[in-house]
Amino acid sequence: MRIGIGYDIHRLVEGRKLFLGGVQIPYSKGLIGHSDGDVLLHSASDAILGAAGLPDIGELFPDTDFKYKNMDSRNIFSEAVRICNQAGFTIVSLDIVVICEEPKIIPYKHSIIESIKSLIGGTSHVNVKGKTNERMGDLGSGNAIACISVALLQEI
Question: Could you tell me the domains of the chain?
Fold first, then answer.
């Protein structure tokens, strides 16, 4: 068994769609990033890759490469799962914490979990929690969304 941790943060801006876990969330702002800015899938991808001892998404999908501009993060996550499996590991569990004041995560939790499970395939356990930053800092003032993920892998 191996454990990995992932973290990501992106600023919220007007004029972008908000994606979390591959699900479009109705909100007045979206996350800015080289890709679609999906902090949840970025964080979970890095947790999976880290547990498998593989390069992180910054190495695999550098923001200096234009071909990844506005990339759907579901593709990033699917590639992380694919190379994890190719390296001889299967995902047992993902535990994910989304940190933001708004939007509230609970109404979208089930859809996000189902989206992630569909990208993984198999019977992996996936949990998603929403937390606030108690109105402190950029997260607490609603200027950003962050995510922390933990992945548990098992050798195939």
Answer: 2-155 (3.30.1330.50)
> Is residue 91 a contact partner of residue 45, using CB atoms and an 8 Å limit?
no
Yes or no: say if 101 and 109 are a contact pair by the CB < 8 Å rule. Answer: no
At 136, the pLDDT band (50, 70, 90 cuts) reads very high
Q: Are 138 and 11 in contact (CB under 8 A)?
A: yes
State pLDDT tens for residues 93-126.
Answer: 999 999 999 999 999 999 999 999 999 997 889 9
Q: Cα 17 to the chain's mean position, in Å?
A: 15
Which strands, in side-by-side order, build the sheet including 144-155?
A: 29-31, 2-14, 144-155, 89-99, 125-131
44: amino acid identity, one letter: A
